[in-house]
Amino acid sequence: MNRRELNPDESPVAAFGERLRRLRDERGWTQDELGARMGYSGTHISAVETGRRSPTPRFSARADKAFGTGDEFERQGRAARDTALLEGFPEYIGYERQAAEIRLYEVGVIPGLVQTPDYAEILAASAVKRGAITDDQAHERISLISERQASLIRTPPPLVLVVLDESCLRRPIGDSAVMAEQLGRLLEFAELPHTVLQVAPFAMGARRPFNLPITVLTLADRSLMSYAESAQRGHLERESTFVLPTLTAYHQLQAEALSQRASVAMIAELRKGTS
């Protein structure tokens, strides 16, 4: 059986998962056996160990009880939750790295998968200035964006379909040089053989099926899942009964959006205005 290598330096969530696995291995327990001791399924244990799920206070307390570690897991769990990442997002990232197809729609800002470093740093610095995150959390956000983009360069690469609301292009982030570079990155992205880039123009009006960002993943076994965020947490939906209508709405969005050729022309024209 292939086991995913864990890097505790990736994030506090990864450090928690690595320690959980290490202590479990030392005792010779399987994930199912540890799950039985803690009141969770083996699948849940696996998701926490690999960073696809953040440890809740209840989970951390039960880990301390199972391993006899006092409150060490509780303290480490607080550090894992004191992160710039929404609950649910680490789990999503685990699936994104495996996806055969990624469909995403974004409103207001360029999505992380196609952000330039300067664009990402300005967004993170703004969040720090507002007191929303710390400097360390800003670094975590920027590092994760780089890792996510690198994970797309694999063999074979995933098919990545991106629809951007026009507001993503027209909202200025940083100075004109930053925006020019960012729009240039979008043009480069559109030229790749495994990508599709479209713009949902303001003129779509009420025909736009989504008011919030949405992502739909297709895994190698053709199973589907969707991911969406509220202000408090991210939600990963695996039940096909709920994912299929989202996929249908995404196809409707693509049909109403500008073609890639027209989208590229719009982006190129906007880029001229930043020079």
UniProtKB/TrEMBL annotation:
Domain of life of the organism in this record? Bacteria
- Name used for this protein in its record: Helix-turn-helix transcriptional regulator
Q: Report the InterPro entries cross-referenced here.
A: Cro/C1-type_HTH, DUF5753, Lambda_DNA-bd_dom_sf
Question: Upper taxonomic classification of the species?
Answer: Bacteria, Bacillati, Actinomycetota, Actinomycetes, Kitasatosporales
Under the heading Pfam families, the entry gives: DUF5753 (PF19054), HTH_31 (PF13560)
Q: Kindly give the SUPFAM superfamilies that the UniProt entry links to this protein.
A: lambda repressor-like DNA-binding domains
Q: Which residues form the HTH cro/C1-type domain?
A: 20-73
